[in-house]
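#struct-pred

JT: dropping the chains for the assembly here, can someone run the whole complex?
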Amino acid sequence: DAEITQSPRHKITETGRQVTLACHQTWNHNNMFWYRQDLGHGLRLIHYSYGVQDTNKGEVSDGYSVSRSNTEDLPLTLESAASSQTSVYFCASSEYITVSYNEQFFGPGTRLTVL
Amino acid sequence: AQSVTQLDSHVSVSEGTPVLLRCNYSSSYSPSLFWYVQHPNKGLQLLLKYTSAATLVKGINGFEAEFKKSETSFHLTKPSAHMSDAAEYFCCLGGQNFVFGPGTRLSVLP
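RK: done, full complex below.
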């Protein structure tokens, strides 16, 4: 069965370190998204990609970067981790942007703690 | 600009009684709308979606939602709550980017 996986599931790091969160999907979807989830804020979009070599900034992109070298993967990098980036991170994918019933499929999440 | 409002941050019901979770949206074009459920320490799972085919949409686990354009609403209902329905529920506006509401936590009391 197709799926979307994230690794690691839990990560503890120190302020100032570079951290990369992996996201891999086997749906063969064009679109991939990264969100962070914090109490009282719901899900906020960090970065998204509509295809290979395409990346775009979302609502809360400062301090994060992504790159898309193939269809299956969209790694999220925290260049210099800050305590404000302690959160739960979700990756999602969807098929086409022009299709109205185009729901997103979510990974299980990565809980990141920055000390 | 697109936006989603979920009017209640927390709803508490007794098992066997109806559930109503409210969602209002703002969109400059015909929307696609979704409800997702998140159980503790899990990812989001799609409950149902509105794609302009029918205004009353049925989803999984007995949930349904009605799209009302005049009220810009897409409220989620279930006739009889079950203990397993206790979770966080997110209303979502689709399109080029997805816009999520802040979520409603549903508690089900025995």
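JT: nice. The mean pLDDT of chain A is 92. The radius of gyration of chain A is 13 Å.
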